[in-house]
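Quick note —
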Amino acid sequence: MESIHSSHSKKEIQEIIEVFDFNVCNYKNMNKKNVSYHLMYELSKIDNIEPDNDFFFIKNKKELIEYLVNPDSSKNLTIKEKNSVMEIAKYIMMYVKNGYYLSYSPFLDWDDMYKRANYIKDYGDIPSVRKAIDGFNTDPKMINRDKIKYIMSSRCKKKLERKKRMVQKEKIALKIKRGVFIVHFD
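Predicted structure written out below.
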C-alpha cells in the first residue's frame, strides 16, 4: 500500500475524508500519520468513488490516489519564499494599521511598497496576503490607480464561499429564549 505524500496537510486529508465521505472513525482526533494510514486503507477497500466537481475536481479513485501520492501542487512555495511573502504582507499590514505612514514601515517609498504588493498578490491562498492586499487597496493613494487583485486557487475560493455560507446560516437562524421576562413601558 502506497503512502500519502508528506506535503499534504492533516487538514487537507481530513477534508478529503469529508468530501468523499470515507468511513474513518474519529479522524479529527488522530495525528497526521494515522489519518493518512486510515484513508489509504479505506481507499484500498473500495472500487470507485463519487466524482467531486466542486472542491478537489477528482473524477475517480485512480486520480485521487495519484493526487495523494504525489506532492501537493498548491504548495509551490518553499519555506524561505513563504517566509519572505509573509514578511512583506506583515509590513504592508503594519503600514495600513499606522494610518498609511511610510515612516513606520521598512519600505523606501510608496512605489517600492506597490511593487512588493504586486509581487505577493500571486499568493492569495495565504490569508495574510489577502488581508494585506485588501488593506493596501484602501490606501488613499490608490484612488487613481487600479486596485490590486490577489490570485487564489479555485479550491481556496470554494472553501471561502462554503465558510461564508456557514456564517450566514448561523446569523439567520431563529433563536428562542425561554424564561421570565419583565417589560416596562414608560
